[in-house]
DNA sequence: TCCTAAGCGAGACGGTACGTCGTGTCTTCTG
DNA sequence: CAGAAGACACGACGTACCGTCTCGCTTAGGA
C-alpha cells in the first residue's frame, strides 16, 4: 500500500524545494480511495445523490480528510476526470491519415467514455456550472477545452492537407461545437443514443460541412453574409 | 396579485359535472403564486438552490399545499415551462417563405428564452433527468420534443419546396440535433455565447448541410453507409 | 412550578387565550421521551458523556426536535429536575412536630435522591455553572433555592417554637449551608458516604449549632442518641 | 523560552539508576509550558472549554508531547495543582496558639486560592470525579485529603489543649466536612460568596460545635464577637 | 565519530458530536 | 375539504476536537 510519491528530493532538485514539508505527509492511499469512491458512487447513484459524507464513508476515510483536500464534491470529480485520460492516452490522439476516420475514431472513444464511467459525473458538473462561473471556468480548462483541442487539431490537419476547407458558412469552431454539441444534447435529453453510429454520421457531416465547394454556396452564402451585416 | 380565489364554476353548475367536486375548491391564487415563486427563485439562485421549502415560503403558501399538487420541484418547473410559450405564441412558428430566415428567426427567439427565464431551469431539469427515465420522458414530451418538432417542420417545408435536400450525409434529425446541440453545449460549457450571431451561423450551416449536391458527396456518403452496416 | 402543563383553555379561561396556537401542537410524547432519555443516559454514562445526539437517538426523536425546545443539554436536565419533585411531593415537607425529626427526614429523602437519579445530573450542572452566570442563576432558582427554602422553613419553625435559637455564631443560612454543604462535599470527594447516618448526625449537629444556651448537650444529645438506635 | 533542559540528576548518579535512560531526555521547558498553559486556559475559559488541543497550541507544543506524559486533561491539572502549594508553604500550616485563629487563617488562605487560580480547575475536576472512581481517588489523595488533614490537625491540637471537645453530636470529621462542605457548596451554587467573612463565621461555628458543654460558650462567644468586628 | 534511541514540533489520519437546514409526513385550526 | 402553520423523524451539511499515526529534526548515551 506504500507508494513512493515522495516529492521531496525527487530527481535531485536541490534548489526550489518550497517551504519544507513538515508533519505527516498526505496519504496517497486515502487520496485514491476518495477519488475512486466518488467515481463509483456517482456512476451508481447519480450526481445529485453524490454526497461528501457518502464519499467519505465509501472510501473508509474521515469526513475531514475529504474536506481538507477538496472543498466540494465538484472538486473531487474534476480531479478524477482529470486523471482518467492518462489511463488510455493512445486512443485520444488518432492519426490514421484520413480526417474522417480520425474524427470517427475520436468520437467513438469519447462517446464510450461518456456512456461509461464519466457520463453522469460530467453532465452533473456541467449542470452545476450553470450559474457558477468559476466551476464553469475550471471545467472548461480541465475537461471541455482539452477535448475540443484534440478535435480541432484533427480538423486543422485536414485543412492543411487539403482534405477540408474552412468555409464562410462554418468555422472550425462551429464544426467542433457541432460534434460535441450533438453529443451533449443527446446525453442530456436522451432523445437518441450516443453511439458508434452517431460517431460515423457526425464524421460524415463534418466532412460535408467543411467541404470546399460549398453546397448551398451561392444564394445561401450570400444570404449568410447578408444576414451577418 | 389578488385573485378572487374561486373563479371556476364553484357551486353553480350542477349539471354534468362528473364526480361532483366536494369541499373547498383548489385555490388558483396559490397555484400561480407557487409557479411564479419557483421560476423567480430558480432564476435568481439557480436550480440546485431551488427548494420546496423555499418555494412555499416565497409564495406565502403552506408546504403541504405545494406537495399536494406537485410531488417534486421538477414537477413545479415543468408546469411553469409548459405555460410559458402561451405567452408569446406568435414567434414560435415563423413562416417568412425562406427556410434560412425561418430557422434563424426560430433560433433567435429560442436563444433569447434560454438566456433569460428558462435557462437555468431547463439545464437543471436535464441534468436531473440523467438517471431518471420518467423525468427524462416528461421533459422530452413537454419541453424538448415540441421545440424539435417546430424546427423539424420548418426544415421539412424546405425539403418540400426544394430549398433543401435530406441527403445521405445528414438526416433532418441530425440537423435538428446540430442546431439545438450547439445551443446546449454553449449554454453548459460557456466557451462561446448563445446569441443572434450564432443563430445566423447555424441557419447558414444547416442550409449547407442539407444542400442537395453534397460537397463531400460520393466517398463520404458511401463511407457513412459502409460504417453503418 | 408549572403543574397544570396545559396552558390552553385550562380551567376554562375563555378570555386571554394568547396569540391563538397555530400549526401542529407540540408532542407531549416526544417531550417526555426526551426528558426521560436524558435522565436515563446521564445516570448511566455520566453528565460529561451526555450528548444532545445521544438524547435524541435514545428518545427516538429527531435532533431538531430537541434543539427546538431545549437549546442545550443543561436545559433538558433542568426541566427534568424541575419535574421530579412532583412525583413524591409528600416527603418534601415533613412536619412531625420535632425539628430534629423533620430535618432528619428531609435530609434522608434528599440524600436518597442525590444518590439515585439526580446526583450526577446536578453535580454536572453545578460544575458547568462555574463561569456561566445565567446557568448558575437558573439552577439557583429551580433546584438549589427551593431545597434551601424547605430546610430553612423547618428551622424557622423550630425557632418560633423555641426549640432552636438563631445565635450570634451561626445564622440560619449558615446552618442550611452546613447541611447541604456536607452533602455536596461528600458527593463530590467521596471520602465518606451520604447516607441515613449522615442525616442523623447532621440533624443533631444542626440542633446543637442552633441551641441558644449552647447546651445542646442534654436533651439534644439524648435525642440524637435515641435517633441513632 | 530556553531552559537548561536537564535539571535532574542526569549523568551524575550511576548507582541505582535503573534501566539507564537512553534517547533524548524529556524537555523540562515543554513540561512547564504545558502546565502553565493548562492553568491559564482553565482559568480564562473554564474547565469545560479546556482542551488537549488547546493546551498544546497555547504551550507551543506538539499534541503528542502532551498525550505522551498526561493521558487526559485531568492529569495535567492534577499535576499543576500538586505543584502550586509549594509556592507558598508558609500559610498552609498556621499555628497562632488559638484554635479559632488557626482555623480562620487556614480557611482564609484556602478561600483565596479557590477564588483565584485553582477554583475552576478544582471544581471541574470534582465534577468529573463523579462516576470516575479512579479520578476521585487521585483527587482525594492529592488535593482533598491534604487539606482535610491540615484542618484536622489544627482541631486535634485544640482538643489536646482542651480548647475543644469532640462530642457525641459532632465528630472531628464532621467538623472538617462542615468547613470545606460549606466552601464547596458555595463555590458550586454561588448563592453566597466564599470570603474572609465566611472564614470567620465558620471558625466560630466550629468552635461552638466542638464545645464540650455545648456553650456558644462564654469565651468562645465573646471571641466570635471580637473577631467579627 | 558514528549508531541507536527517544523526545520534539508538525500535521494528516479515521472518528464522532456539534448546531443548522431541507426533506416529506403529520396534525392542528380556520375558511 | 383546501389551505396556513408548524411540529415531527430523518439525514447531509461543514466545523471542531478526539486520540493515533507518521514525518524530519534534535539530543542524548554507547559503540
Descriptive account of the structure:
The structure is a homotetramer of 229-residue chains. The first copy, chain A, has 10 helices and no strands. Chain A is an all-alpha fold and 229 residues long. The radius of gyration of chain A is 22 Å and the shape is elongated. In chain A, 41% of the residues are buried. Residues 1-15 and 214-229 of chain A have low confidence and may be disordered. Chains in contact: A-B, C-D. Chain D binds a DNA duplex (31 and 31 nucleotides) through helix 2 and helix 3.
Distance between the termini of chain A: 64 Å
Give me the CATH fold name of the largest domain in chain A.
Tetracycline Repressor, domain 2
Write down the domain tally of chain A.
2
Based on Cα principal axes, name the global outline of chain A: elongated
What is the oligomeric state here?
Answer: homotetramer
> What is the H/E string of chain A?
HHHHHHHHHH
Number of helices of chain A: 10
Classify the helix fraction of chain A into a percent range: 55-70%
Mean pLDDT of chain A: 82
**Radius of gyration of chain A, rounded?**
22 Å
